[in-house]
Amino acid sequence: MPTSTMDLVAELEQDTSLLDEGAKREIRRAILTAVCVPGYQVPFGSREMPVARGWGSGGLQVTLGVIGPTDTIKVIDQGDDAGVNATNLRRMIAFSTGAEPTADSREATVIQTRHRVPEEVLSKQHILVFQVPVPEPLRGVEKSVAEAARMHAEADYAKIWVSLYEDLVRNGLITKSGGYPLLVNGRYVMAPSPIPRWDVPRLHQAEHLNLFGAGREKKIYAIPPHTDVAPLAFDDVPFEVEHAPGARCQLCGSDDVFLVDAGTDGGYVCSDTEWCTRVREKDADLSNHRDHAPLDLLPDPAARMAQGADVQPWVPPARVTGGPEWALRVTGIGKVHGAGGADAVAGTGPEYGTAISPATRAVVAAWDVSFDVAPGEALGLIGESGSGKSTVLSCVIGDQPATAGQVYLAGVDDGRTDVLRLPDMARRKLRIDGMAVVHQDPAEGLNLGVTAGGNIAEQLTAAGWRGFHAIRRRAAELLERVEVPLSRMDDPVRTFSGGMRQRVQIAKALATDPPVLLLDEPTTGLDASVAAGVLDLLRGLLAERDVAAVVVSHDFAVIEALTDRTVVMQLGRVVEHGLTDQLFHDPHHPYTQRLVAAARR
Amino acid sequence: MASVLSVRELRKSFVLHTIDGRTVSSLHGVDLEVSAGEHVALAGPSGAGKSSLLRCVYRTYLPDSGQVWLHTAAGEVELTGLPDRAMARLRGREIGYVSQFLSAPPRTGPLEVVAAAARRRGLDRPEAREAAATALRRLNLDETLWDVDCGVLSGGERQRVNLAAGTVRPPRLLLLDEPVSALDPANREAALDLIGSLTAQGVAVLAVFHDMDAMRRLASRVVLMSGGLAERSGTPDDVLAGVA
What we know:
The structure holds 2 protein chains of 2 kinds. Chain A is an alpha/beta fold.
């Protein structure tokens, strides 16, 4: 059989399908995965389509993947069947697949949509395909793709709760309309493409299958029939749909539909043109539609914030007693940067005057550092820059993996489990309510673009708080305690001075009343008078909440003011430990004597 | 009388690494006994080791060798070998230390300093404030000064704050290092009265005083120190007669 290039071109021109069978199979596989894991964004090999990316190429690929010649296709753009884009897509799909085009939702088997769910109540015959511009619900609150993936994996949605908190604080109500974050099947938070909040209730326990295609971002996800879909909302601030009081469609008179502005004269019309037409033609099941309309979720400004008055102050649960004497115990922590691991340690340390391994040139930042700290006690970790104290701290909190050693918390399995061996997710959770950290640089512990209250809300929502007013009350209490004026509670931390930022960071760390508090040079970046204020604050806080504190500092004045006992580090090793006043008055190690002499000035 | 403090063969020297590693000796094997309700005064010339002994007992200095036994309600505790944490707790509860200088945290007021000491000895917050107010009143500290920064107080005022903190809710053992050196006669009288009343309450007191009058008035026994040793022990009149 002769085959020329022209034959191949002719064959291509005869083939009207836009996707080859291989591509369709891949899309179907992604859809199957998406249906199995509702709300999870499944990556797929998005193809070039004869529409620009961002013009519905994702929805188009999903539609082409599921449709066949016996199907009937309806395409809407913001509820309108007659828009240029909707019309062109419908014609193209019908032409290339042999499916029947329609504008009637009752006849359609596949409905491709942009930004709306049809007013007609859909049933199990329907597949609703959404064109999605931005599939990532965390995009607005987390720039890093890897971090967003981690947050999904660990169901760590505190940041998105903070965005809702901030919306409520700034505006007194939730203003986010299109793409409202939904918790699907109790697991994944999902962006439902920019559909209005009005349409959200109809995704919950729906009869039809919802498929979401994002062509530019190469993601497919789904809400299968009979799946729980819950918009994220605080327990005491009800979820509301969009509604203008007394508004009706100028054309059909409906008041139980999603309405849009009609021109400049202030009136409204149905967003769904098919529904509007059929209501006027008396061809619509009005009572069934009304039963499914979200009329129970209309805004009620009187009820919205009503529960704020009677919120009681939070009483932290009593500390667990009866476990070990200490709250935090660190044994033999070591950190080697470079080759060799534990074998690189020989030949380093104070007695050799170097932290660099003679064998492998690795840097032994810390080795064999052990200490424990009890509730109500503060332990100092002192040494000059480069002595390894901050390395030890970051190994303890898990910012970097330790080469050797164990960390135990009395609150975790009564101190029998090495928390360094816990999975990342469990360790990260420990930092919320087990072992809080105050960094030298407030920017490390705070989100500077978020308000002071919002930063505290992040810690609280991460710990599972879902009461807006309870969060407000707790945040106000904490800010008052750290002497940040309440008038600044709703200002972004970026507008705060260094000392105020540090106070907010301390308030955030203490939000959940953690049993262990780690302070890394808490006053170092501050000028003298501000540092003194923060120091006084910390001293008061440590005394009143039975926390076990570790204070890392190069400054003897800070250590003296805050701690009872101190560990002295030099070149990655502990060279001396003792009562803080004893180390100051009777230092034994030459290095400690030099430090003390320097501190006396 | 029940023994509260027993010091055995206590030795202390300092190795000064920053100054060519020279060794300075301070205590050369001190033995000492203080009972409940007894006031033992340390006498002797400067450099005899009086303050060093107090500091070794309080563990501000870490002794080289020897033992320091404290007889508490819960049994005998050897302080030189006690873990740091246990020592820190024992200090707050059982031992008061009043030096010539006030070692209050910066930017705290007298009432707060004294109340904190009372809390460490087991009083709750309101009780501690009450006790602190009583103690400061007894030492005639002007009430307008109670909440000002201790750093701005005069030497005599600081010393009274210090004494109030050391004696509020009296501890089992009280260590006094020149506690009235900066006081005017009237205040000194009140302070000495206070110290004297403690012994009657069963507190064991180990004290260093400059002046003989105070020693004669308060001490049940005087220990004469010289060259890092406890040389002689006896009634104030016996021991001080030889010195003066």
